[in-house]
Structures are given as structure tokens and as C-alpha cells.
Design brief:
Strand order of the largest sheet: 1-6-5-2-3-4
Structural class: alpha/beta
Number of helices: 22
Radius of gyration: 25 Å
Order of helices and strands: HHEHHEHEHEHHHHHHEHEHHHHHHHHH
Number of strands: 6
Strand content: 5-15%
Helix content: 40-55%
Shape: globular
Distance between the termini: 68 Å
């Protein structure tokens, strides 16, 4: 279990090139098994590598040979964890979720694990200070919200992206179910004895916090033990041999691998995916203060759609490969058209449409498009077709005031009373009203 970080397969350029070359060679061989595996599973890691979804894998000595063979031999079970520190997933969670779906599309079985228990501990990975403790009622509410997020994305994928292909199974689990009956003394006695302090202390997430002024609590320090046990539990009860996680989860993934190998002797694997970052290089997550949520009550389909419309040209091709299921050849064609007239933002529009449809379905995408036409193109027709919920979402952040309309009040009078337009000559005001007609109509709806 004492494998060090130096033994971890982090995909620097030379390793990544060698790994992909190994996969190309292996894709030439036929693996005969008694179990039927989806044909597209043969090149799964190669394709994920080309899309940039696979960042690394470990142990290094097994990543070359055993992992590709394992994936081609029979359907495997793959899991990824999501701690319910909020009641919604955010854009930063999309990539590991999409990676799970790629495995499902290749015929493998996937588990999305909600950390109803580990959320009480708090993952120190990537954090400069300890997470704020959450009340049990808050965690329960968050678990429900995350489950809704996950199931909605999985359902939309099956409806709009499966193309009739046979998919692996999906399970959404809560790790509280196997911790709530455990005795703390028994757990530390049976599980804790397999961990070594030197290895735990060597993890980057621990070292960075120990060197900080705030330090690290015993609670946070124990987190890697609980996440490791999650992998062990899923291995024993669901035959799970592969764990997915962001690159900031590297130490936790290693600890899970080490625990299983030490207790059972079985070979299991960890696969890391890159973190989605802002243009400034910051991790895109709710704790960074710039979250874009996947639940409609926190970020509307219109807001999600516009977020991706606003992505820079330098990022859009990478995001199309990471966050959509479009074939790479189609993405290259989209980019070829895009570069001819980049001002039309063709690539961004396709990216926004694909992500919004996966997250909110076709109805959510239509909502986003209607709001876009009304807000940015002054389309009265689009505004007339919008539901009350869509109107509320469109002007969610807009200031408002309540007015008591008197008989004979004109739109111009109303706009002036609401201070929506400045005082001035009537002709100028009328031209201004025409230019902001969607907002004016919204005022009419709001006060009637």
C-alpha cells in the first residue's frame, strides 16, 4: 500500500504519447470472451484520451497493459463520487459525469456515489482552509438535490444521446447507507490498521494544508480513509474496479487503490479527468465564487446557455471535445466553419445547445433560445410565447418596483414612474422604449 506519488501515472507528454500508442497497438488485437462487450469499448481509453477527458491513470505499471485488457474483457463497474456540499451540481462536476456516461456508452456499468456520510467529514483536496461544517438536515436536503441533478442528466442522455445503442446500467447510491450502522471503534480497528501514517502524510492535499497557517484537523485528515473505504465497499458489493475523479482527487484515488490491493490482493485502477477551469486558470466550482449550477432554481437554462455562448474562441474546441458527445470529426468540421466567421459564434452556439440539452432537456433548450431571442434580439414574438416561469428566470437579477396603475396611465408614464427611462423629449423617449421593448413588456406583465 505504500505506493508513492512518484509511482502514479500522471499524463505528462511522454507518458501520454506512450500510453496512447500502447492503446492503438492493443486495439489491433481481438479479445475473445464469454461475455459480449460493446464494440466501442475496444477503443474507449484511446478515444477519451483524444478528447482530453483522460488526464491520468494509475498504477503506472498497470495502466499500459492491464486496464485496456480489463475494459475489453467484459463489462466493468466504474464509479465517481460527488459530495453533497450544495443542493446542486455545478459546471465543474460536468466532466467527471460525462466521463461516466462515456463508460456507460461503451457498455460498462457506472455508479454515481453521493457522499451523504463523507460530506460530514469534508474533503480537504484543493482547499486552503477547512470546509464549513454542515448540519445533518442540510446534508439530507443537498443529497436530494444532487440525486435530482444526476438523474436528470442521466435521463436526458438516454433520451437524446444514446442513439438506440445498448448502454450499461446506472446506479445512484449514498454512502451513508453503509456508514450509519458502523461503530467508530470497530471501523478504526478493522479499516484504520491498513493505513500508514507516512503514506497519508505524504499526500499533496495533506502537505499543502500542514504548511498553511490554519493547519489541518484530524477530521479532514481522516477523509482519505473514508473515501478509500467507499472504493473498497463498492469493490466488494458491486465488483467495482475503476474509480474516476478529478486531478485534485489523486491522493484519495491512490489511497483507495492501496487499501483494496492490501486487503484483497486484487488489482484496481484510478482514472483522473482534468479540472474545468476559468480563463484565468481558476477551478470552476462553487467555492471559487463563480459557480454555474445545473439545477434550474439556481441557474436557469437561459443563464447556462449564455455562459457557454460567452466562451472565448480559444476555449471552445476543447470544451466541445470535453462536454459533448459529438464525434471529433464533426467538432473539427464545426470549427472549420466557425473560423470562417468567428463573429457568428457558431461553435459556441453548438456547445451551449449541447450542454443545455443534456442538463435541462429539449424543453430547457427551447426556453434558453426563447429567452435569448427576447433579451438580445428584442423579439416580441419570443416574449409573447414565454411562460411566467421563463419570464421570471429571464429577469431574475433585474431590479423591480411595484406600481399602482391609475386609469389613463400610458407606457411612457409607467416607465418614467419606474425610473426605467430618463426624463426628456417625448420623441426621444419613444425611440428608447422601442429599443427596450422586451423590458417594457415585462414591466407590464409584472404589474398587471
Amino acid at each position: 500500500m505504500a505506493a508513492s506519488i512518484s509511482k502514479t501515472c500522471i499524463f505528462n507528454f511522454s507518458f501520454r504519447r506512450a500510453f496512447l500508442r500502447s492503446l492503438r497497438l492493443r486495439s489491433c488485437y481481438h479479445f475473445s470472451t464469454s461475455v459480449c462487450v460493446a464494440s466501442n469499448s475496444k477503443d474507449l481509453l484511446l478515444q477519451l484520451g483524444k478528447r482530453g477527458i483522460v488526464k491520468g491513470a494509475f498504477p503506472e505499471e498497470s495502466a499500459y497493459d492491464q486496464l485496456p485488457i480489463l475494459l475489453q474483457s467484459a463489462p466493468q463497474t466504474v464509479y465517481c463520487g460527488f459530495d453533497p456540499t450544495s443542493d446542486s451540481l455545478h459546471v465543474g462536476n460536468l466532466l467527471p459525469l460525462i466521463a461516466l456516461l462515456h463508460f456507460q456508452r461503451a457498455g460498462h456499468n457506472v455508479i454515481a456515489l453521493i457522499g451523504g456520510a463523507t460530506a460530514q467529514i469534508g474533503d480537504p483536496s484543493g482547499k486552503t482552509k477547512e470546509r464549513e461544517a454542515l448540519a445533518q438536515d442540510t446534508i439530507s436536503t443537498n443529497v436530494t438535490g444532487l440525486r435530482d441533478s444526476l438523474q436528470r442528466v442521466f435521463t436526458n442522455h438516454n433520451l437524446y444521446y444514446s442513439s438506440g445503442q445498448k448502454l450499461g446500467t446506472i446506479n445512484v447510491l449514498n454512502n451513508l447507507s453503509w456508514y450509519k450502522q458502523r461503530n467508530v471503534v470497530e471501523f478504526v480497528s478493522t479499516v484504520g490498521r491498513h493505513f500508514r501514517m507516512g503514506t497519508m502524510l505524504s499526500r499533496h492535499s495533506v502537505q499543502s494544508r500542514l504548511k498553511s497557517p490554519e493547519g489541518m484537523s484530524l477530521t479532514e485528515f481522516s477523509y482519505q480513509m473514508f473515501q478509500s473505504y467507499d472504493f473498497y465497499y463498492l469493490n466488494q458489493h458491486y465488483d467495482c474496479r475503476i474509480q474516476l475523479g478529478g486531478t485534485d482527487q489523486l491522493g484519495n484515488l491512490m489511497s483507495g487503490h492501496d487499501l483494496i490491493h492490501k486487503v484483497t490482493g486484487e488489482h484496481v485502477f484510478g482514472v483522473t479527468v482534468p479540472l474545468i477551469t476559468t480563463m484565468a486558470g481558476d477551478k470552476l466550482g462553487k467555492s471559487a465564487g463563480n459557480a454555474v449550477w445545473l439545477n434550474r432554481d439556481k441557474t436557469s437554462p437561459f443563464e447556462l446557455y449564455q455562459y457557454f455562448i460567452r466562451q472565448e474562441d480559444a476555449s471552445v474546441e476543447r470544451l466541445l471535445k470535453l462536454l459533448t458527445f459529438l464525434p471529433i470529426s464533426e467538432i473539427e468540421h464545426i470549427m472549420e466553419i466557425h473560423w470562417k466567421e468567428p463573429e457568428k459564434r457558431i461553435a459556441q452556439k453548438r456547445l451551449a445547445a449541447e450542454v443545455t440539452k443534456l442538463t435541462h432537456g429539449k424543453d430547457g433548450l427551447e426556453t434558453a433560445k426563447r429567452c435569448t431571442h427576447a433579451f438580445y434580439h428584442s423579439s416580441v414574438k419570443a416574449l409573447e410565447e414565454m411562460s411566467e416561469e421563463e419570464l421570471q428566470e429571464l429577469f431574475r437579477e433585474a431590479p423591480f418596483c411595484e406600481l399602482l396603475l391609475e386609469s389613463g396611465t400610458t407606457i411612457l408614464d409607467m416607465c418614467r414612474k419606474a425610473k426605467a427611462i430618463p426624463d426628456g423629449p417625448k420623441g426621444c423617449c419613444c425611440r428608447l422604449i422601442r429599443s427596450i421593448m422586451p423590458c417594457v413588456l415585462w414591466c407590464c406583465v409584472a404589474v398587471t
